[in-house]
Amino acid sequence: MRGMRRLAALVGAAALLAVLPGNARAAEPKFSGTTAIGTHNAYEKTKYTYFAQALDSGASLLELDVYADTLSRRWRVSHSNPLGNDNNCEAAKTPGELYSKSRNQDLGSCLDNMAAWNQLHPDHPPIVVKVELKVGFNDRAGLGPDEFDTLVAQKLGGSVYRPADLLGGTYSTLDAAAKADAWPTRDSLRGKFLFDLIPGTVEQANPFDSYWTDEEYGDHLRDLAAAGRISAAQAFPAVLGAANGDPRTSRYDASIRPWFVFFDGDAATYVNNGYDTSFYSSNHYVLITTDAHNVSPAISSTNPTDAEVAARLALLAKHHASLITSDWAAKPASVLSSVTPRG
To answer: For this UniProt entry, which residues form the secretion signal (predicted)?
Structure first.
């Protein structure tokens, strides 16, 4: 009888351990519950010889600067040349062509490189592709949100995590899905790219352009959802600029505010000014904090020590960032691939 009671106690203890978090196996972290590292302007040849090397770097975010070239009706990838390409994307469409072809290609080739690289690394962790549309969209020239979606879908197909995937056929807006923490786990996002779009510096300085990338793509998402075509959308628009509180209320019409769940702002502005960033993690929004090196005390923008990067990642995770970015391309993959719990 004593042996039976002991066996029953052991079975009960095992059952208890099975349901207690942190015992037999920790729960897989959701995409919304982690903080990772990204590389600013990863298309620049001074950072990586080929864009495939940027993908190899382990960084969880890679940034592209894209111009809508209305003369050629092509998407140019460059820092300052709106009519030409100046980048490390190569004319490579297959895995065997990577790291060897001519560079300075357009956005389509950058996407081709990603597709070819994805074949070599189908189990890679999720990578956010941050696209700054330097002069914005130009729908009249055939370079609008629809055309952007079509190009991404044609090149990358099912390897893109889309707004429709977050909605999951359950939620009516991205805001509702994010607040319900409908984000998948990082493991289930392996092999996926997520695109987020921000207005560009030229667009913002243009006195004749008040309809920027973020608002235009927000309208696009709203209208696609209303038409039952949200599955066509390939990207998430981001609210640009650090703010204390919800920046959507003062920037957008109420009809598109629920379509913004990505936010992008200067890390030092958030932290050094003491902004309450818990708003982002409590609602499971994606917060990208840029120029992470400038948070006090400032560290190198190009090649800080591994310990400094780890400390900065931990600090900004505490401040609820999802992704932190800088020009740390010189760091090894063991550093750039670092992921830590958020908040």
So the answer is: 1-26
d(CA 289, CA 218): 21
Q: Nearest CA to 301 among 315, 286, 290?
A: 290
The long-range contacts involving 278-284, CB below 8 angstroms and separated by at least 24 positions, are: 278/320, 278/343, 279/245, 279/246, 279/320, 280/320, 280/322, 281/32, 281/320, 281/342, 281/343, 283/175, 283/178, 283/179, 284/30, 284/32, 284/33, 284/178, 284/179, 284/180, 284/181, 284/183
Residue 165 corresponds to which amino acid?
D
How many residues make up the chain in this entry?
343
| C-alpha to C-alpha distance for 286 and 85, rounded to whole angstroms | 30
74-77 and 61-69: which strand pairing? antiparallel
Distance CA 293, CA 316 (A): 11
3-state secondary structure of 128: strand
Amino acid at 167: L
Examine residue 297 and say whether the peptide bond preceding it is cis (omega within 30 degrees of 0). Answer: yes
pTM: 0.92
- pLDDT tens per residue, range 265-286: 999 999 999 999 999 999 999 9
What is the C-alpha to C-alpha distance for residues 77 and 60, in angstroms, rounded to an integer? Answer: 20
